[in-house]
């Protein structure tokens, strides 16, 4: 994988409210908020579970620093593709409206595979007037007209994005078959009540990732960032190798094995368009794509292992020198601070 753009995001370690959701259907009114094919039990139940502990109190910096989890996140709408995914690995990620272009490139690089994404919209709650003596305090929080309009615009933006990939002209092969040549998307739009513009700038990464993971339904899953591109061989070779996939599923479930994903960054001295072009070159099809990638690293200096010039503990144990010189699996020893991207059994993450 190659990261098309750099960027620093502050991690907010917030607690996910629903780690498992029931396999039962709920009120038909919820179904109207699930777009795509006819809403099934899992998609509808996701609304019910996610909102079961919802409290409309905006998250504040003070509450965050005291370790009090936000319960003001709310699912607004789900888009659930009617197309059938064909790969055993789901990719789950997070995004905001500004990163949908990156997500578009990612989706086109994972044909036939399922990508689930939680799109975040922060809403700064307006101060409420304290109740007069003898009056009951207001329960809940009603969005203002301006906030409702902003959420409607966000919904329309995501809907246009989703429709682009759901179109039969886009998600079918040249000979008219149903074989997709882009990813299969499941998207949930989540808004969060926050106390001020500081909290509106801090994306709750972990809770969004976990929210997206709840929509994954394949044996294997992998968490990535939305600005990563996949090497063409992931969908075209690795996941089309039946014996390889069976082995990965077996080891993931029986031996709790995870597969670390090598990830490269593009040269930060280049412009954003140049970095996007380099990323697309690095993941493109070819006779020997790994040799090309190594050439871009060692000879041209256009790419390098992610974290090589920053937080080296985060990805150093992957040992890219070994990876460069082998085509076989090798063991990686966990070290404190190691934060790799990896493939793992979905059921293991729910334990």
Automatic annotation (TrEMBL):
Recorded GO MF terms: glucuronosyltransferase activity; xylosyltransferase activity
Sorted UniProt keywords: Glycoprotein, Membrane, Signal, Signal-anchor, Transmembrane, Transmembrane helix
Cross-referenced InterPro entries: Xyl/GlcA_transferase (IPR051292)
Main location: membrane
Signal peptide: 1-22
GO biological process, one term: protein O-linked glycosylation via mannose
Record protein name field: Uncharacterized protein
């Amino acid at each position: 994988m190659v990261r098309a753009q750099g960027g620093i995001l502050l991690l907010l370690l917030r607690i996910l409210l629903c780690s498992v959701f029931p396999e039962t259907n709920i009120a038909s009114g919820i179904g109207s908020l699930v777009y795509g094919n006819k809403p099934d039990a899992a998609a509808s139940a996701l609304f019910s579970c996610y909102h079961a502990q919802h409290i409309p109190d905006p998250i504040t910096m003070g509450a965050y620093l005291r370790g009090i989890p936000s319960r003001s996140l709310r699912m607004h709408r789900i888009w659930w593709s009617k197309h059938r995914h064909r790969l055993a690995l789901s990719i789950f990620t997070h995004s905001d409206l500004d990163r949908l272009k990156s997500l578009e490139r990612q989706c086109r690089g994972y044909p036939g595979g399922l990508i689930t994404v939680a799109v975040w919209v922060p809403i700064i709650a307006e101060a409420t007037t304290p109740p007069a003596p003898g009056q009951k305090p207001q329960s809940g929080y009603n969005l203002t007209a301006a906030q409702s309009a902003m959420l409607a615009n966000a919904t329309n933006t995501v809907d246009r994005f989703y429709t682009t990939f759901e179109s039969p002209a886009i998600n079918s092969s040249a000979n008219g078959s149903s074989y997709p040549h882009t990813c299969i998307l499941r998207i949930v739009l989540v808004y969060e009540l926050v106390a001020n513009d500081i909290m509106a700038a801090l994306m709750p990464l972990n809770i969004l990732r976990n929210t997206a993971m709840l929509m994954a339904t394949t044996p294997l899953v992998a968490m990535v960032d939305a600005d990563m591109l996949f090497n063409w061989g992931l969908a075209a070779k690795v996941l089309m190798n039946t014996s390889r996939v069976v082995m990965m599923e077996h080891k993931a479930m029986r031996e709790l094995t995870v597969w670390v994903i090598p990830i490269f960054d593009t040269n930060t001295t280049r412009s954003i368009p140049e970095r996007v072009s380099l990323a697309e070159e690095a993941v493109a099809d070819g006779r020997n794509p790994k040799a090309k990638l190594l050439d871009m690293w060692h000879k041209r200096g256009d790419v390098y292992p992610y974290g090589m010039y920053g937080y080296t503990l985060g990805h150093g144990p992957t040992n890219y020198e070994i990876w460069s010189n082998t085509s076989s699996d090798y063991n990686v020893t966990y070290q404190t601070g190691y934060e790799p991207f990896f493939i793992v059994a979905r059921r293991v993450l729910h334990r």
